[in-house]
Amino acid sequence: MRAICLASLVLFAVPACGDDGMSTGDDTPEPDANTNPSDLVELIGRDWSVPPGQEIYKCVGITVEEDMYIDLFHTPNPTGEHHAVITISDSPGGFGNTQLGEYDCNVNTLGLEMMFASGVGTDDLVMPEGVAIKVEAGRFLHLNLHLFNTDPSETISAHSAIMGRVVDPVPANMEAEMVFAGTFDISIPPMSTATASGGCTFNNAATIFTYWPHMHQAANHQKVTVNIGGTETVIHDEAFDFREQYNFPLDPYLEVASGDSINVECTYYNDSNTTLTFGDSSTQEMCFTGMYRYPKQAFTLFDCAEGAGGF
Q1: What is the mean pLDDT of the chain?
Q2: pTM of the predicted model, to two decimals?
């Protein structure tokens, strides 16, 4: 596999940039509802303003004061917010050069351990009963916001946040994580339809309970196929709408073992005069499905993405 630049790595995790279950076969599962329970707390957030016609990044980092187990994520997704990505790391700096406090940043500024990602129209992520993502006291929580003001004359301002439901501790084998399946290798010729595909072979057993398709504006379809014990099953075969980036809970959950595999196939129509390749802008493309699974086992969120090099 080719190595890719830092920017490309991070962009993959960014769910919405620019202008912005398990049913077997072609059935359309209902995405999780926005439940907005009264016991949500703000895990991390910040105020921001964007001048007319500008596209910027704003970040904030905090140190976690006590152990938390979170089984539901929600984002208010105000107008102008085109992605909100929350990551965990052992300290500021390092990969992504993250910092404490509020500061201007870029798409590269986040960690390699993903908690939750949202884009335009993303609904709540609700985990199965007894499953949660753990954040240990003393670790570093970071929020990366991609903000875009399409108004040519007025500044927009808002408060962005990731909300969560904090629950009682769960056993280690029920601690969840988010990883991405797909590929960084995308090349769509001008004025044409083309596909990109990629995935991985699983090294360990896991239960996948929700998936989250993510592509950009030229994308129009995604197909996800799993090979379990030598039998291929299509778990997603649907049109893609950049404005409606839903989570899809699986019913039943997907049980995979070592040696099983997943493949994500993305279809695009490029109506421009230039070749579209991988990138964070809506004028570029991505091909991923985010997988929420337990137990936690990945080294980074890129473990199931082809073209991720040594990351």
Answers
A1: 86
A2: 0.81
